[in-house]
Design goal:
Layout lengths: L12 H5 L4 H4 L8 E8 L2 E9 L4 E3 L2 E2 L9 H11 L7 E8 L3 H24 L1 H14 L31
Parallel strand pairs: 3-5
Antiparallel strand pairs: 1-2, 2-5, 3-4
Helix pairs in contact: 3-4, 4-5
Length: 171
């Protein structure tokens, strides 16, 4: 025989925990501070999940130091280098990235990293330090916080590409 779920006036989280669906039990707890922010570059999408921790930054499950290609590794470190590693020392950030090519993935990662730390500081630290971080990022490079809206224009009929038309002959 199964137990009945708690009544509406029951306020205990511990009592409620066993009645939550499986996917809610394994999601990040509402009691621990965490923040989730997306970053986009063309067709690449990166989602950074920022929570209180000890300074770990992971990209698709592996440390951020292993990011490829090596030429663009510095681009990923830009948000950390601009504000200082002390701002990232008390948070753990997990980044998932998919889609696009190497370069657009790198730009999506750096944007997600910058947006997640700003959102974390806004929600769990204070507004003044969040504004300070935001100003540092905006002065350096606006694309750290604002996505580039440019997309590839689709091809139309009557021509070889999006704008080019087939030549017209009058004779």
């Amino acid at each position: 025989m199964t137990e009945e779920p708690p009544f509406r006036d029951s306020r205990s989280i511990a009592t409620f925990q066993k009645w939550r669906p499986y996917y809610m039990l394994h999601a990040a707890s509402a009691l621990s501070p965490n923040e989730q922010e997306p970053g986009q570059g063309k067709t690449a999408t990166a989602v950074a999940h920022c929570k209180a921790g000890k300074g770990l930054i992971r990209l698709n499950g592996s440390p951020i130091e292993l990011v490829e290609p090596d030429v663009l590794k510095f681009k990923v470190y830009e948000p950390i280098l601009r504000v200082g590693s002390d701002k990232f020392a008390n948070v753990d950030i997990r980044i998932r990235v998919k889609g696009g090519g190497h370069t657009s993935q790198i730009y999506a990662i750096r944007q997600a990293l910058a947006k997640s730390i700003v959102a974390y500081y806004q929600k769990y630290v204070d507004e003044a330090s969040k504004n300070e971080l935001k100003q540092i990022f905006l002065q350096y490079d606006r694309t750290l916080l604002v996505a580039d809206p440019r997309r590839c224009e689709p091809k139309k009929f009557g021509g070889a590409g999006a704008r080019a038309r087939f030549q017209k002959s009058y004779r």
